Amino acid sequence: MRAGTYERLEIDERLEFGYFLTDGETRVLLHDSEITEPIEDKEFVDVFLYLDYESRLAATMKMPTLREGEYGWVEAMDAVDHMGVFVNIGLSKDALIANDILPEDRLIWPEKGDQLYCTMRITENGRFFARLASEDIISEKFVPATREVFNKSVSGHVYRHIEAGCFFISVEGYKGFIHSSQMTREPRLGELVEGRVIDVKEDGSINVSLLPRKQDAMSADAEKILDYMGLRNGAMPYWDKSDPEDIKERFGMSKAAFKRALGHLMKERRAYQENGWTYFTKEQ
Q: Which residues form the S1 motif domain (predicted)?
């Protein structure tokens, strides 16, 4: 018997904390915490073998969510420098995505909760490793998009980074690319991102932007202006005729974006201008 195999074993002995199972030659422990259904009246039990934290062969009735040669989504659990990222495969012991196949930039390593499309590899000494799906495997999962999705919102998980941007698979199965110019920061491997379809290619893949739509960007700019005015008791020495460089330095936005956001606030009667200053309305 070896780790990583599925076995039907005979119940050999009941212990205070579990059962010893045997294939007639070797005995392994099935701990109570690894039992998923009553087995008192059974002679044989279907189990999966693994190495416990002391490298001893052990049995579990829990079945891994990944099998060698098969692919599926797994959740990132913990990142360890100089090792990699551990992912949940449905067992009490996680599988490792080794650091040498993760991005060089530690900041875009998966964090807890991120989802990765992987298969499992079990070494000869019984260690569990998760292996990221290759581009060929992703292409098999890929569902071609139609022109109807243009300008629609999509969400999905990032599965690969390159210098120009990153690739992701949407929840519908569309393969998408996000150019670095269409993001405000680089998403993590496995991170769930939401964006807007800006192009549908002939092969059905899509280009996606993570930048906010104009109306959303204007709303964010307006909130930035309101936050700044709030820190100054509802008044600021900026208005729609202020110098563009002053606006850029203070708010990090172009004068055109500033004027749009300010116009939006005045249209909603949340602010007004007077003598080169902008003020909260009394309702504020």
A: 151-211
What confidence tens digit (pLDDT) does each residue in 34-62 have? Answer: 999 988 878 899 999 998 888 889 999 99
In angstroms, what CA-CA distances link 173 with 20, 156, 157?
45, 8, 10
Q: Model confidence at 230, in pLDDT bands (50, 70, 90)?
A: confident
Distance of alpha carbon 212 from alpha carbon 46, whole angstroms: 52
* The predicted structure's pLDDT at residue 146: 93
Query: Is domain 6-60 given the CATH code 2.40.50.690 in the classification?
Result: no
Going by pLDDT thresholds of 50, 70 and 90, the confidence category of residue 190 is very high
Do the domains spanning 142-209 and 214-280 agree at the CATH topology level?
A: no
E strand segments, the chain? 6-15, 18-22, 27-31, 44-51, 57-60, 72-80, 84-88, 95-98, 115-122, 128-132, 153-162, 165-170, 175-179, 192-200, 206-209, 235-236, 271-274, 277-280
- Cα separations (Å) of 39 from 22, 25, 30, 36? 15, 21, 11, 9
Which CATH code, of 2.40.50.140, 3.40.50.300, 1.10.730.10, 3.40.630.30, is assigned to 142-209? 2.40.50.140
Burial of 27 (0-12, 13-18, 19+ CB in 10 A): middle
State the CATH class of domain 214-280.
mainly alpha
Please check whether residue 266 is in contact with residue 273, taking contact to mean a CB–CB distance below 8 angstroms. yes
Q: Does domain 72-133 have CATH number 2.40.50.140?
A: yes
**What pLDDT shows up at residue 130?**
95
